[in-house]
Amino acid sequence: MDEKAIEKKTIFSGIQPSGELTLGSYLGAIKNWVELSDTYNCYYCIVDMHAITVRQNPSDLRRRTLHQLAQYIACGLDPMKNTIFIQSHVPAHAELAWVLNCYTMFGELSRMTQFKDKSAKNADNINAGLFTYPALMAADILLYQTDLVPVGEDQKQHVEITRDIAQRFNGVYGEVFRLPEPYIPKVGARIMSLTSPENKMSKSDKDPGGCIYIMQSPDDITRCFKRAVTDCETCVRFDPSDKPGVSNLMQIYSVATGASFGEIEKEFEGKGYGDFKVKVGESVVELLRPIREEAERLIADKTYLESIYKEGAEKASRASAKILRKVYKKIGFVER
Ligand code: TRP
Question: What is the pLDDT of residues 156-202, one digit of tens each?
């Protein structure tokens, strides 16, 4: 049989350990990653090198990186089926990023919306790493000949610049890199902040009540949902532009329970938002309970986590070595 025909397509994605994982990262990303595990050859990375483009407290960064690994696994990502690793453990990422920096233009980096946002937010630390962040992300993706990159809308521009960089390189040296495409899952939920539902739920949210964390206690979760912003209409109806708060809660309830929007509207017909918010909170508590408990168990098992990230780094190093060697050869570096 033709080997190529049965070869699985490759997926790469990553999340920065710059904060604890949120309900949004679970429902919007990791839950989908789990579903892709069987069909694709998947690399899921903890991108600690990207995280240091804004100042991090060292012990927090170390703790969050390990927590993130435990939570990936607790969310159902199987380390036997996927390559799960920490970015800084695979030096090829830094090496290829340097090369790609030399094929990335000042002008195109200046147009990146994330750079503009982040430099506005970190005006006292607009460092070169923040600026060349997309070249490192391009290295992450291109090292594995990735076909598809599951990302949210906000990262699409970074996948596009990755394609531009790859095309520019291929234009000079021949077909070296495969051109990746963003993969925006159809059923992926875009979870918004509970207190400002016009914005994505984010670990960098200034208002602590807007964001639910995977590891948060049931009491805290319940409290956040009770305080969630709704509107003055008192009618549970899905309408993201007119009723962003209520629609977001419906979206969450729908993924947590499997109920359709129609079913949810019927369930809460004639009832107040109070009831509705309590029910949504309960559904999230029950959704996250087994994940939190499993993650806590894994966090306590340092030896297990270490064996997983070491094996992940080995697999990723092996998979990426070939392409880096090819790049070095093409650009004229003497073979080591
Ligand atoms: N920039 C991404 C984010 O902040 C994280 C990331 C880094 C990533 N490298 C990646 C995502 C490669 C997908 C593929 O969300």
Answer: 999 999 999 999 999 999 999 999 999 987 655 689 999 999 998 98
Q: What is the pLDDT of residues 254-285, one digit of tens each?
A: 999 999 999 999 999 999 899 999 999 999 99
The phi-psi region of residue 276 (left if phi > 0; otherwise alpha if psi is between -120 and 50; otherwise beta) is: alpha
The residue written with tokens 């309408």 in the block is 239
**Closest to 140 in 3D by CA, of 128, 155, 153:** 155
Token pair of 201, please?
Answer: 């739920």
Q: Can you list the domains of the chain with their CATH numbers?
A: 3-184+302-331 (3.40.50.620), 208-296 (1.10.240.10)
What is the value of pTM for the model shown?
0.94
Mutate-to-test residue for ligand 1 from 11, 40, 45, highest number of ligand atoms within 8 A of CB? 45
**Could you confirm whether 118 is annotated as catalytic?**
yes
- Please say if 9 is a catalytic residue: no
